[in-house]
Amino acid sequence: RIAWIDGAFVPLADARVSVMDRGFLFADGIYEVTAVLDGKLIDSARHLSRLQRSADALGLTFPYTSEQIEAVERELIVRNQIDQGSVYLQLTAGAAERDFLRKADTPPTLVMFTQAYDYLNSPAAEKGVAVVTMSDLRWARRDIKSVMLLAQVLAKRAAAEAGAQEAWMVEDGFVTEGASSTALIVTQAGTLVTRPYSQTVLPGCTRAAIWALAEQDGVTIEERAFTVDEALAAREAMLTSATTFVMPIVSIDGRPVADGKPGPIARRLRQLYIEAARAS
Ligand code: PLP
């Protein structure tokens, strides 16, 4: 596998970052994950704009233009022969003497690599996934795609131990989002509901795309927070993310959502999302 680090394509095994890197020492960094289908990037403009937004929030100067980043991503897709997969990108504040304060002249570290997936043949999408709920233990700026992911690592581990594929995090009685996905429900009245953008959640790129597709498809949509009880009483529940597209949720805390089978709106939105990605 070939990775890209600070201007050079190198074998992944030879890609090295200093132990003094601020990403390693302070989680002083951000990342993006963009899906690849048919060898093409999906929703690249949305991911690049969120990347810029995250960089601005941390005060990191982005060292390349969006066009340059996309050119590297495309080259990585070709070199790694990725038909279905993702490109991971991480930008950190670079390597310097350990100090909470950054030095202005420290060059940032930028790394990219690819991963292969099989989106179109996904047993999870066919069967649906289980989620378990837990307290949201994260910080107050979840709208920044920070590499500080320990709360999500612990949430995912707890979910896996409970036999579930995702954790839904709950704050003040309301679901914020999944550990690595946006949370959505369909009410008994047929309205697709998800939490509005704020500092409490990451503005999901897949959610933005799905939202537009749902609206075009005539689905009633509403941005508001919902509780776990509302989700349990819903007609459907689902999650969205770059590397899962749309996944139907069939159980929450071991209790079935509706009849415990993937719902028609989740299935349809998944299909529309894939069609739109392939047509782009
Ligand atoms: N929320 C969190 C906390 C995430 O980590 C992710 C993706 O990894 C998402 C939501 C979904 O965002 P996107 O659709 O842009 O992948």
Task: Give descriptors for this structure.
280 residues; alpha+beta; D-amino Acid Aminotransferase, Chain A, domain 1; 2 domains; nine-stranded mixed sheet; 15 strands; 30% helix; globular; binds pyridoxal-5'-phosphate; aminotransferase; amino-acid biosynthesis; branched-chain amino acid biosynthesis; BCAT-like_N; D-alanine-2-oxoglutarate aminotransferase activity
Return the structural class: alpha+beta
CATH overall fold name of the largest domain: D-amino Acid Aminotransferase, Chain A, domain 2
Summed up, the domain count is 2
Label the CATH architecture of the largest domain. Answer: Alpha-Beta Barrel
Average pLDDT level = 97
What is the first-to-last residue Cα distance? 27 Å
Total strands: the figure is 15
What is the percent of helical residues? 25-40%
Number of contiguous helices: 8
- SSE string, helix = H, strand = E? EEHEEHHEEHEHEEEEHEHEEEH
Family: Belongs to the class-IV pyridoxal-phosphate-dependent aminotransferase family.
EC number: 2.6.1.42
Keywords: Amino-acid biosynthesis, Aminotransferase, Branched-chain amino acid biosynthesis, Transferase
Catalytic activity: L-isoleucine + 2-oxoglutarate = (S)-3-methyl-2-oxopentanoate + L-glutamate; L-leucine + 2-oxoglutarate = 4-methyl-2-oxopentanoate + L-glutamate; L-valine + 2-oxoglutarate = 3-methyl-2-oxobutanoate + L-glutamate
